[in-house]
Write a structure and sequence with these properties.
Layout: E1 4-5, E2 24-25, E3 47-51, E4 75-79, E5 84-87, E6 94-95, E7 100-103, E8 111-119, E9 124-128, E10 131-132, E11 140-141, E12 147-153, E13 158-161, E14 168-176, E15 181-188, E16 198-199, E17 206-216, E18 223-236, E19 243-252, E20 262-263, E21 276-279, E22 284-290, E23 304-311, E24 321-329, E25 335-336, E26 340-344, E27 347-355, E28 364-371, E29 382-389, E30 396-400, E31 403-411, E32 424-434, E33 439-451, E34 461-465, E35 470-479, E36 484-496
Parallel strand pairs: 1-24
Antiparallel strand pairs: 2-3, 3-24, 4-36, 5-36, 6-8, 7-8, 8-9, 8-10, 9-12, 10-11, 12-14, 13-14, 14-15, 15-16, 17-18, 18-19, 19-20, 21-22, 22-23, 23-24, 25-27, 26-27, 27-28, 28-29, 30-31, 31-32, 32-33, 34-35, 35-36
């Protein structure tokens, strides 16, 4: 892989050589805010660095959601009420959903969300398609039977909705029948037709993220046709594998590769970090939290989050490039956790936790960073949301009509039975960007949804219900009725404040 590296001086935290060409700005000050007054505004508090020469060869006319109306009235974040169970398979466990909004709804018709999940005992991928009306919980309906997308499943599903070309949901996972390989299912919208899953011929053992946008042209034309990017973990040699390497496959909307898989880092002997992936309307970005790196790997920075851009092939070698655009380094003594990505109002945001490795069960910092659509940080901004998070899993980030929703699960009253509301709880904060002043303001939070024992093996996933000024979250948790793990939806509303 031909890798390019562009980084500047990280405010005294690190100095890294520039390998790629182009103008560069050294960002020595990183403003930081919090609901408690924030950390001191100094370069030593946040290492966020970016180059400033945004590429011009990857821009396309793909429409993307740019977020809420800037003139929307102020509102207050509230819980809509108790969670709703939407998928339960008797005598089987349902695990770790993902979610997209298949239909945002309107005044005349309800919204519909698509929630694929693993049914563990049956080893199936099932796609739940509930509708959500204005009133919670009575307007949550399962009017369509879940679709069985695949069998002999060995991974959690990833889902995306196409942003160009045919309107469809795309779901990928590792499974059968027969040879175990990555599978691809396409569900057409709005009729929800599905003609069966097919195997993909790409490398990689486990899909870890999926983003719809454009596919790379192998002949240097940039991002030209509708497509998706699929991040996977590639296992190399041995049983169990001795090396792992995260790669990204570039596919058209039929699941055909358009260029060779793109390695994000050099192979590592320990478990490789899972990247997060997003299409920004201009390019694909990845965000990866690294612990350690292979010697001499220019795409990996230890104990940091690396934001990288995927650049299509161009002359003379026609090889896709991975370009490091920004590096986020926590304060000394803290380590970053798996990041979440969201596109909001035409800008990219990354959320993550920072933990003290000497206090494995201690509180964590919840953080939010701001980047442009090419992965550069125009304001070098790292915002502290709270210092006392006690998450059960990684952080979730959702773009909504009322700002950014940052969510994670925590233990509640551990003396309660697993099926009692309050055994676990979902915490959410609302953050609003101020593009005029280059700041992020924590507006509300935490808003709490009491739930049964949280059992997802990943972050909560969310989608915007724009018609209702709300957001929906999905997770797996214990069911008091079935005595099993089932799939639940929760909702938070932003209620317009009375003047």
């Amino acid at each position: 892989m031909g890798a390019m590296l562009r980084m500047g001086l990280l405010g005294g935290l690190m100095a890294l050589a520039t390998v790629g060409c182009g103008a560069r700005t050294d960002l020595l000050t990183a403003g930081t805010e919090s609901r408690d007054g924030g950390l001191p505004e100094s370069g030593s508090e946040a290492g966020v660095d970016a180059a400033t020469d945004a590429p011009s060869d990857t821009a396309v006319d793909t429409a993307v959601d740019t977020g809420p109306d800037a003139d929307a009235p102020p509102c207050v974040l509230v819980s809509a009420g108790a969670p709703v169970e939407i998928l339960a398979v008797p005598e089987n466990e349902s695990y770790t959903p993902s979610i997209v909004v298949a239909d945002p709804g309107s005044d005349a018709s309800p919204a519909r969300v698509a929630v694929p999940s693993v049914i563990q005992g049956l080893s199936e991928i099932r796609l739940a398609l509930p509708t959500i009306g204005p009133s919670w919980p009575q307007d949550v309906k399962t009017d369509v039977d879940p679709l069985v997308l695949g069998i002999d499943t060995f991974s959690y599903p990833q889902i995306t909705r196409t942003v160009a070309g045919d309107d469809a949901l795309i779901v990928t996972w590792l499974g059968g029948p027969g040879t175990i390989q990555i599978r691809w299912a396409q569900v057409s919208l709005p009729d929800l037709s599905f003609s069966g899953a097919k195997p993909l011929t790409i490398a990689g053992s486990t899909p870890v993220d999926l983003a719809a946008g454009r596919a790379m042209d192998p002949n240097g034309a940039g991002y030209v046709q509708p497509g998706v990017a699929l991040a996977t973990q590639l296992s190399l040699g041995g049983n169990p594998p001795q090396l792992q390497q995260p790669v990204v496959a570039m596919l058209d909307q039929d699941g055909n590769e358009t260029v060779d898989e793109i390695p994000l880092i050099e192979p590592v002997e320990s478990m490789a970090p899972n990247p997060s992936l997003i299409w920004t309307g201009d390019t694909y970005l990845t965000a990866t939290a690294h612990r350690s790196c292979a010697p001499g790997d220019p795409l990996c920075v230890p104990n940091s989050i690396v934001v990288a851009r995927l650049q299509p092939p161009s002359a003379p070698d026609f090889v896709p490039q991975v370009i490091v655009e920004s590096v986020v380094t926590p304060d000394e003594g803290f380590l970053p956790t798996h990041p979440a990505l969201a596109l909001h109002q035409g800008q990219v945001y990354v959320a993550w936790f920072e933990r003290n490795p000497d206090e494995p069960d201690g509180p964590r910092r919840a953080m939010l960073g701001h980047f442009d659509t090419f992965g550069q940080s125009p304001f070098a901004l790292r915002t502290l949301i709270t210092t006392d998070a006690l998450p059960l899993e990684s952080i979730g980030l959702t773009s909504t009509s009322f700002g950014l929703l940052v969510s994670w699960p925590e233990d509640g009253d551990t003396e309660l039975p697993d099926g009692a509301l309050g055994r676990s709880r979902m915490l959410s904060y609302r953050v609003e960007p101020d593009m005029t002043h280059g700041s992020l303001e924590v507006m509300d939070g935490p808003v709490t949804i009491d739930m049964t024992k949280y059992l997802s093996r990943a972050a909560p996933v969310g989608g915007a219900l724009t018609s209702y000024g709300a957001a929906v979250l999905a997770w797996s948790a214990w069911s008091a009725e079935y005595g099993r793990n089932t799939i639940h939806l929760g909702r938070v509303d932003c209620v317009v404040a009375e003047l």
